[in-house]
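Intended use. Records such as the UDP-glucuronosyl/UDP-glucosyltransferase entry shown here are meant for training and evaluating sequence-to-structure methods. They are not intended to support clinical decisions.
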Amino acid sequence: SDTERFGLPGWPDRIELTRSQVPELIRLEQEDEFTKMLERVEEAEERNSGLIVNSFYELEPGYADHYRKVLLKKEWHIGPVSLCNKNNEDKARRGKEAAIDDHECLKWLDSKNPNSVVYVCFGTNSSFSGSQLLETALALEASGQEFIWVVRKPKNEEEDAWLPEEFEKRIEEKGLVIRGWAPQVLILDDKSVGGFVTHCGWNSALEGISAGLPMVTWPIFAKQFDNEKLITDVLRTGVGVGAQRWVRLAGDFIKREQIEKAVKEIMVGERSEEMSSRAKAP
């Protein structure tokens, strides 16, 4: 069945997934542009003599060794590449133009206590429905935690129609909503940030790891469910929000209670200090 768990044979750790969390390229016979792109990537990998990887050996030595032994390929670890951005201006200018002035963002963060803010962002390719955004907003408010939430408004919806009535007015002391691109590395590296809610895209996951943050994992598609297992099962520096299905654009519908519980768990829960210490360990 789609929900029955199975172990991945031959992997260095005991990793379990369900059929619904496996990429469509493996699970389904039908082809589309996305699966064709993945096939081209695999074909290119088969033709080359090795990979340049945005990672570092100490993070996942068993998997680096497994790759070399099983596929007989070389690997060169050059990551985390986000650490090339040394000063705040470089961090703020990384990627697209931010939807918020970096000085305004830092001023807001400076007003908060160390490790008190949870940063919430789902990358550039994930688009939630209005109902899921509403559920997320209510969960963040109910958690009682200070937060920065980077959000893409759903297509075909009026501006801010997905927000609870007077939401930003109610949370103006506790929350900051950024509509569009955010200076993510700058925010994650700030001393006031103590947790990260992420879609588990590899760049974001590695930036969270580099910042030494415990994470709430909310995978949606591609290899994000695999990345989630690295964070929650191998490194043990995060908790899952409960996403169960590989869905290209919007993912599972996650209830506010699940989101609130996971956010509290990494910020103020019984295991929060343990996860934070483990995440910050050299």
